Amino acid sequence: MKKEELFLKIDEPYAAGFFEREDRGLFFRFSRAQRRYLENCPVDEYRGGRLYPSGKINRGGYAVYPECAKTFNPDYYVALSEKSPEAAKIMKEVRDKSNFTVTPSAPYITVSGYTHSTPHYERIVREGFDSYAERIKKIEDEDMRDGLLDLLEGIRSYHARGLAWLEKAGADPELIQALKQVPFKPARTVYEAIVCWNYVMYLEGVDNVGMIDSGLAPYYKGEDISREIRELFENVNDNGKWNCCLGPDYNEITKECLRQGAGLRRPQMNLRVTKDMPDEIWELALEANYSGCGNPSYYHEEMIQEMLKEGFPGITPEDLKRYCPVGCTETCIAGMTNAGGIDGNINLAMLFEQYMLKQLPEAGTFEDFYTGFLEEVKRGVDLFTYDIDRNHEQRAKYLPNPMRSLTIDDCIDKGLDYNNGGARYNAAITSETGMINVIDSLLAIKELVFDRQRFTPDELFRLMDLGDKHLYELLRKCPHYGVDDEECDRLAHDFTVYFYGLYKDKKCYRGGKYCPTSHQYNRHPKEGKKVGPTPDGRLRGEALNDSIGALSGKATKGPTAMMLSAAKIDQKSIYGMNALNLSINKKFAQNSLKALLRAYMEEGGAMVQITITSKEDLMDAMVHPEKHEDLVVRVGGYSEYFNRLTPDLKRVILERTLHEE
After folding, report:
1. Any residues with CB less than 8 A from the CB of 531 and at least 6 apart, and which?
2. Is 418 helix (H, G, I), strand (E, B) or coil?
3. Who's near 84: CB < 8 A, 6+ residues apart?
C-alpha cells in the first residue's frame, strides 16, 4: 500500500498530503499537507459571538496536524501508533530526518528550536490574500511558488466551508458579510479588520496577537468595539497563547484593550511605556494589574529603541516602530521576524557548579578563580551557539514552514522559506538559567573562602553537601545582589557585561544576530533539579532564580533597593529582553507602584512584570484550589492560573518575596 493510501485509510489528511507528491521538494510537500488538512478538518462551530472561529482550536481528532512553530505537531507519535504502528513509524522517520533537536555539546545546554511569531496582520487586513497570489507567482523556486499557491487554495476551501456553516447556523449577518470580504479582500471597517485579525490568528495557529491598537487605528471611527476586543482576547486565553503589544501611539483602542484584558491571564498585554505616557493609560494599566491578571507588563520604550538600533543594525525608523514582544518577552519586529522562542537555554548554575568543584581548590585568589570562570563561560557560549546553528541548519534543510512563509515579510519577495532566512529580520533567541544564583555564589565564595577564610574549598563542599544548617545561615547572610549594595551590584554589572557581550559579534545560521534573553518561562525548577548545592544558599535540587530579581528571601531592603540592583545589570545588551518579577501585596497603593515603575525605568530598567496577590491567598490556594480558580500569577515571563502550575512552580511562587508597601 502506498504511504498516501495508508494515511487516507486511517483518516490522517495532513500526513496523506505530505506523501501525495513524493517527487516534489519539501516546501511543496508540507504545503500540500497543510492544504489537505484545511480541506478536511472540521469547521468550527458557531458559538453566537461576533468573531469566527472562536474558542479552542478544533483538531478533529487527527494525530498529525500543522503546528505554527514546528511545521507539524511533534507530539503525534502515541496517538498515531494507536491508529497504525506502521504509519507512526513512517512519520517518525520524517521527524528524525529533520533532526529537530540536536544532541547538546554539554550537559548544561538545551536546544529547543521553538519560534514565536506575529503574522503581518496589518498587511493582510490592508491588502487581502488575493493580492498575495500575484506576488507568489513571481517566485522563481517552483516548489515554493506552487506550494504557497496550494496553501492559498487550502485556505479558500476552509474559508468557504466555514461560511457555509455560518449561513446554515443562522449566524450574525454582519459576521457573514465581513467574512465574505476578509481575509481575501481588504477590510473596509474596523469590524472587518477585527474579524480578519482573528481569522488570520487562527489560521496561523494562535500564537501572538501583535500590535492590535496601532493596527486597527486606521479603521477606527469611534465605534464601540469592546465586545469584539474581549472576544478576541478570550480566544487567545482559551488557547493558552501569548502576547499583544500596546502603544507607544496610545489611542482609544489602547484603552479598550486594557479594559477588556483585565481579569484575563492571556493575552499577556505588553505596554510600551514612554516618558510622557498619559495618566489615563497609567490608570487603566494599573487597574488591570489590580484585577489580579498579571497584566500588563511594562516595557521601557526609549531604552528599548536604543537597544534595537544596536541589536538590529540597519533597521529602518518605520520598522523600529513595529517592536513587539512575543512569547514570554522575545524581541520581534511585528510581521517581519523569525525569532526563537527560545532557541535554547544555557544552565549557568550547572556550568558554575562543574567549574567550582574542579577549580576552586586550585585557585590562589578570588581573581584567579573568577577569571578562570569567565573563560569557562566563554567556552560554554561557543558550544551553545554552535549547537543552535546546527539546529537552524537542519530546520532550513528539512523543515520548511509554509504558513509563516505566507504571513511573514519578506519570505515571498525573497523567494525564501521562513526557516531559511526568508524573514526580513532573523534572530536566535537564547536564554540562561541561574545567572543570579551564580552572582550570589561568587559573592559568597569571595566572602567566606578568600576574604574571611572561614572555610577551605573542601570544607565548604562537604558542609554544602550535608546541608549543614549553620553553613546555610552564613551563606544567606553573605553580601548579595538585590539590596542596592554597591560592591555586589558592581560584580553583577561586570559579569553581565561580559556574559551578554559574548553574543554581540555572533551571527546566527539564517542571518541576523544572537539576541540573548533572561526569562525563565517554567525552566527554573527543572533546571534546578540538575544542580547540586550552590554557595548562594540554595540546597541540592532546589529551583533556580525565576527572573533578574533578587533570590527568594534576599530582597530584604524592599522593592526599591531590589530594582536599583536590577538596573545595574547590563540590560542594554539583553537584546531578546529580560524579565523582572515584582510580586507585591494587593494593599500596595497604585500611586506608589506607578512611582516605583517610573523610577526603575529612569535608572535603566527595561521590563517589569507584576503579580499582585497576598500570601494568604496563595497559601489558601495550595490547600483549597477550588476556591481560587481565577487566581493568576506571573511565572517566568508569562501569566498562568495558579491552579494549573506544577507543584514545583507553585512552591517557587509561594516562596517569592512579596513586597509590602
Report:
1. 347, 349, 350, 353, 434, 540, 541, 544
2. helix
3. 6, 10
Rg value, the chain, Cα: 25
- Model pLDDT for residues 387-422, shown as the tens digit of each residue: 999 999 999 999 999 999 999 999 999 999 999 999
Cβ atoms of 539 and 464 closer than 8 Å: no
Nearest of 2, 9, 154 to residue 80 by alpha carbon: 9
Measured CA distances, 131 to 123, 184, 567, 597 (Å)? 10, 8, 47, 44
Contact 427, 535 (CB under 8 A): no
Answer yes or no: is pLDDT of 537 > 90: yes
Tell me phi and psi for residue 628, to 5 degrees.
Answer: -135, 45
Q: Which three cell numbers stand for residue 614?
A: 497576598
- Candidates 478, 588, 593; CA nearest to 536 is 478
Instruction: Yes or no: say if 72 and 194 are a contact pair by the CB < 8 Å rule.
Output: no
Using CA atoms of 233, 238, 240, 241 in order, give the dihedral in degrees to the nearest 10: -40
- Sign, CA torsion 613/206/323/420: positive
Average pLDDT, the chain: 94
Span 284-305, pLDDT tens digits = 999 999 998 999 999 999 999 9
Q: Work out whether the CA dihedral 582, 501, 599, 209 comes out positive or negative.
A: negative
d(CA 377, CA 351): 8
Residue 210 DSSP symbol:
B
C-alpha 586/C-alpha 615 separation (Å) is: 10
The count of C-alpha atoms lying within 13 angstroms of the C-alpha of 51, restricted to the half-sphere facing its C-beta, is 28
Residue 661 pLDDT > 70, yes or no?
A: no
pLDDT at 110: 94
**Residue 654: predicted pLDDT:** 79
What nine digits make up the cell of 4?
498516501
Band (528; pLDDT cuts 50, 70, 90):
very high
Give the C-alpha separation, 512 to 427, whole Å.
5
Q: Mind listing the pLDDT tens digit for each residue in 474-521?
A: 999 999 999 999 999 999 999 999 999 999 999 999 988 999 999 998
Nearest to 201 by CA among 233, 176, 178: 233
* Confidence grade of residue 655 (pLDDT, cut at 50, 70, 90): confident
Retrieve residue 574's grid coordinates: 539583553
CA distance 172 to 582: 43
Rounded average pLDDT over 597-616: 93
Residue 260: name the closest of 269, 271, 272 by CA.
Answer: 269
Return left, alpha or beta for 22; rule: phi > 0 is left, psi -120 to 50 is alpha, else beta: alpha
pLDDT tens digits, one per residue of 136-165:
999 999 999 999 999 999 999 999 999 999
Please check the confidence at residue 272 and state whether its pLDDT lies above 70: yes
Contacts of 457 (CB under 8 A, 6+ apart): 360, 361, 363, 449
Helical ranges in 415-557 per DSSP H: 435-445, 457-466, 469-477, 486-501, 523-528
b (16+ CB within 10 A) / e for 528-547:
bebbbbbbbbbeeebbbbbb
Query: Kind and range of the H or E element at 273?
Result: strand 268-273
